[in-house]
Amino acid sequence: MVLPDYQGVSILNLMASIESACGGNPPYLPLRALPPDEIAGARNLILLIIDGLGHERLISGCAGGALHRHLRAKITSVFPSTTATAITTFLTGLAPQQHGLTGWFTYFREIGSVAAVLPFRPRHGGRSYREAGIEVNALMGHKPFFDKIAVPSYVVSPEWIVHSDFNAAHSGRAQRRGYDTLDTMFQSIAGIVRESPERKYVYAYYPGLDTLAHEYGIGSPRATTLLSRLDEAFERFLAEIGGSDSTVIVSADHGFIDASPGSQIELEDHPSLAETLLLPLCGEPRAAYCYVHPEKTEQFETYVRSELSAQAGLFKSRKLVEEGWFGPGEPHPRLLDRVGHYTLVMRENYAIKDWLIGESRYTHIGQHGGVSEAEMQVPLIVAQA
Fold first, then answer.
1. Are residues 252 and 317 in the same domain?
2. Which residues of the chain have pLDDT under 50?
């Protein structure tokens, strides 16, 4: 089991280093492997997040390539090691302990709904919350990272999400630029670098590897081919912006493990467990938050320990908060609401899933959200151009 190391070795601390280097005042320790003073003088400070690129996969898939040659350190994600939680840390500079987004499915008691956070829709589907009159800013209350720093900033994301409700709410005063392909992403970043001589911060996000890893597996030929293309495109990008006084930082929100046949546990196959729950499973299939009926607590605990102990670790969610799994400091006022009474932290490559009426069923080969080395450890890549 690998837990986040918020004492100078996590993506949270990476954001603290960047915030300090850009004139902000973060409440967290800077990243040991990247002190703020090292990057404070760069005219262009660029952070590229490759969704799903774990440290382990980088080493095995890009040995000798440009990304590997500029690899500086191995750092940890946050808990849970998943996009909705980690990307919110990149976009706010806050630990999950403070930003309170605890997984793809998060229960918001204040609106009585389980949300799919990034699409900003109810889990059961239908209209987005914005269309129903609920604004992201009002519900989440985060100050965007870009509004905490003293330099002009840019967000470079795929065209289909760059102006999404979630992205717009977390971009603050940053300019948003959309792109269509891997090559046009790097072209967009290079264009921003060339636009003006002023100091600037650029945040770029690439989800393609994550998409293929979920569908085919992180070790699949398709994911491997894309990783090679990424590496080659990164090398060309560094050459293109050479001499621009740029520091390029590459990291990831999480890594991946690949599921094996039979490793997904279906809640409907465990009716004695399902009947103890007040709400659908929240969080992630690799880190599931359980809201348990107060009169069925003993039944819930007994069932998990007797029937699922080889597949899942059982934790009281309050204890995870107290032990700092979600970060240091005072917790978000709604954090305990959003992590349920218990958390199932899945072992090996197991996952647990439930389905709502009418919900489209799917199977993911690639999985993340847990505390394995492959999921939790991500690379820190630093290149000068």
1. no
2. none
Any bridge partners for residue 200, and if so which? Answer: 44
Residues in the chain: 385
pLDDT tens per residue across span 319-375: 999 999 999 999 999 999 999 999 999 999 999 999 999 888 888 999 999 999 999
Residue 377 and residue 359 share a domain: no
Residue 149 structural domain: 11-257+371-384
Contact 77, 375 (CB under 8 A): yes
Quick one: 252 and 157 in the same domain? yes
DSSP 287-328: EEEE-B-GGGHHHHHHHHHHHSTTTEEEEEHHHHHHTTTT-S
Same domain, 121 and 184: yes
Using CA atoms, how far apart are residues 83 and 117, in angstroms rounded to an integer? Answer: 10
The pair of structure tokens assigned to 365 is 């080969």
CATH number at residue 336: 3.30.1360
| Contact by Cβ (8 Å): 203, 90 | yes
Which among 372, 316, 332 is positioned nearest to 106, based on CA atoms? 332
The whole-angstrom separation of Cα 370 and Cα 361 is 21
Token pair recorded at residue 194? 């060339």
pLDDT of residue 127: 86
Contact yes or no for 252/360 (Cβ under 8 A):
no
Query: What pLDDT, on the 0 to 100 scale, is given for residue 137?
Result: 81
Q: Which residues pair with 352 in a beta bridge?
A: 265
Q: How far is CA 277 from CA 104, 113, 266, 366, 370, in A?
A: 19, 15, 14, 27, 21
Number of structural domains in the chain: 2
Q: CA-CA distance, 348 to 371, in Å (whole number)?
A: 9
| Beta strand pairing call for 71-76 and 153-158 | unpaired
Same domain, yes or no, for 240 and 322? no
C-beta separation of 202 from 189 below 8 A: yes
Locate 263 and state its tokens: 């490793």
| Dist. CA 82–CA 312, nearest whole Å | 18
